[in-house]
Amino acid sequence: MDQYTLNLLIVGASFALYVGIAIWARAGSTAEFYAANRGVNPVMNGMATAADWMSAASFISMAGLIAGVGYGNSTYLMGWTGGYVLLALLLAPYLRKFGKYTVPQFIGDRFYSQTARLVAVVCLIIISVTYVIGQMTGAGVAFSRFLEVEVSTGLWIAAAVVFVYAVLGGMKGITYTQVAQYLVLIIAYSIPAIFISLNLTGNPLPWLGLFSTHTESSMPLLQKLDQVVTDLGFTAYTAQGDMLNMFLFTLSLMIGTAGLPHVIIRFFTVPKVADARWSAGWALIFIALLYLTAPAVGAMARLNIIDTIFPSGPQEQAVLYDERPDWMRTWETTGLLKFEDKNGDGRIQYYNDKAAGFAETAAQRGWQGNELDINNDILVLANPEIAQLPGWVIGLIAAGGLAAALSTAAGLLLAISSAISHDLIKDYLKPDISEKGELMAARIAMAGAILVATLLGLNPPGFAAQTVALAFGLAAASIFPVLMMGIFSKRINSLGATAGMLVGLISTCVYLFTYLGWFFVPGTNTLENIPANHLFGIAPASFGPIGALLNFATAYIVSMVTQAPPQHVQDLVESIRVPRGAGSATHH
């Protein structure tokens, strides 16, 4: 059976499973559409949260980002994991105790203000749309390669699949679909990683293989990789980057994670507050399975790419383009891998043509610039082909990449549609809408959001993980501070919260768009190549914590010079945080 048919069978089977689950778990009420009727088991919810959380950026882009730059981009790994811990400890249980369906609903009630709620809806839509562009882009990349179609065609196919199960099932359908998607994506990620780790180091556990000896050269794997990439004029794989931006970017991802609406709403689906804590713990275990493997996948992919293109060593660079490996031919059709013969010698020259010390050597060899452009987003998907693994593994990776992109896209689209139908239409524009009408509004909003996300995905700002990084910066600056103050401070009032959100959101947007040109220079990395005219040298992707700081400061100052919240709101805050019965005498 040829590879194309195998891919179709494996991907088709996984889609049939998702659509079947959506039809079985069809939402019949708004409680089912928004919160799966609060009946989800904590272990199942943990698995669904992990799938919701591990997006195309985690599955497709993260290992690619680490592979492209090395240690400097481990910030993605640290920030996303740390943020999840913050969310589990500081926000999830309290928000579940509050017992609402959506994040803007919590903000509106806690700050006793429709304006605050409206601003939260705007923030949520901007964050979720930015984030969902990354997912749709990732799905488009996966479809285009494995169904051998244009990236734009792949995007429309992805949109159609999400439409079927998200619009039908709502949160109930999405939850059970995400459990299936988690199983698909973790199997798809782990099997190739185990094969490749065995090939390169003889160790079946990738996270141990990363620190093992490279079988062929008898050198430690990372040392071998450092040697190979520095030979090509690239920065050493294990070299540290700009520490200020690494710290700020990690912090931005952490607090951005804790403010992501589509992850927070997952905790509204469990029966009890204790279950919210348990599902957060389970999700962390399920996430760790992929996150421990990603750095190994990135490093091994980078080594494999260079070894397969230049079998006799990177210095030789005498490989004829016509004799290039098969995996290059298949990826060239997607446009995500490009070769341009700049000196007309018919050979592939791949090196860092911006490295100052390397220019002389290149000129002596008659090279006129780097001729190979490899998009970071293809590394994980191309990994099995590069390592010449069996065809079914390649099909599995296709299904896994699509599962990752579609599971997160569905969660985000649900956050957008519930904000529009529940927070905007039901509570603001048309309070007397019937339940049936609200459910219809939610489905229409979902369909509209899918269309907008697809159109933006056709021309995305940056590749999947970079677009996602922007969403985190916006969540860090707008939603996270207001949730923290809403839970842990009785003194912050509605004026303070509204002003804080607006200042956080606007300052971050202004900074991002002022410096966006440098942020998306193709082939450069978010944490390097920072031009001197950035404010204090802070990269746009690292601005989230500064926006959050401005949000906190504004909310505090405005609240201090205006009236304290009403007593019933202060009592409400107290009751969210303190367990019922705490401090009172117990009688048996």
TrEMBL record:
Similarity-based family: Belongs to the sodium:solute symporter (SSF) (TC 2.A.21) family.
Membrane topology according to the record: Multi-pass membrane protein
Alphabetized Pfam families for the sequence: SSF (PF00474)
UniProt-listed InterPro entries: Na/Glc_symporter_sf, Na/solute_symporter, Na/solute_symporter_CS, Na/solute_symporter_VC_2705, Sodium:Solute_Symporter
UniProt keywords, alphabetically: Cell membrane, Ion transport, Membrane, Sodium, Sodium transport, Symport, Transmembrane, Transmembrane helix, Transport
Cross-referenced PANTHER family: NA(+):SOLUTE SYMPORTER (SSF FAMILY), SODIUM/PROLINE SYMPORTER-RELATED
Predominant place of localization: membrane
PROSITE patterns membership: NA_SOLUT_SYMP_2, NA_SOLUT_SYMP_3
Source organism (scientific name): Neorhizobium turbinariae
Membrane-spanning parts: 6-25, 46-71, 77-95, 116-133, 153-170, 182-200, 246-268, 280-301, 392-420, 440-458, 464-488, 495-518, 538-558
CDD domains in the record: SLC5sbd_u4
Protein name (record): Cation acetate symporter
